[in-house]
Hints:
Layout: E1 4-7, E2 10-13, E3 18-24, E4 30-39, E5 46-52, E6 57-59, E7 67-72, E8 77-82, E9 91-101, E10 104-109, E11 113-118
Parallel strand pairs: 2-11
Antiparallel strand pairs: 1-3, 3-8, 4-5, 4-9, 5-6, 7-8, 9-10, 9-11
Amino acid sequence: QVQLVESGGGLVQAGGSLRLTCAASESPFSIDTIGWYRQAPGKQRELVAEISSGDTTTYEDSVKGRFTISRDHAKNTVYLQMNSLKPEDTAVYYCNFLYSDYPYMYDYWGQGTQVTVSS
C-alpha cells in the first residue's frame, strides 16, 4: 500500500512563500500524473497543479506565475513551491499520485496539509 506523506504547510503572511513536499513510500507502478489539490472550507476540492510522467505541468489559472510544481523521480517526491501567497490560497492542500498498470489505474492521496495565509 502506497503511503503519501505531506509536509511544509503552515501560517504565512500575504506575499510570503511556502514549499509543500509529498513523498511516496514506494512506486509499484508507472506514475501517470501527480497533482496538488486544495480544499477551502465550504468549497469543493480543486486541482491546483499537476505534472505528467513526462514532466509536463499545468496550473489552475489563479496560481499561474506564482506556484511551481516539480518532482524528484529518484525520491518519488513532488514539490509545490508557492510564492506571492494570497489569503484566498488558504486551504488544506492534498497531493495525489495516479499510477498506471494498464488497463488499471490506481490513485493515492496524502493526508493533507493546512496552508493559512493571513492578510
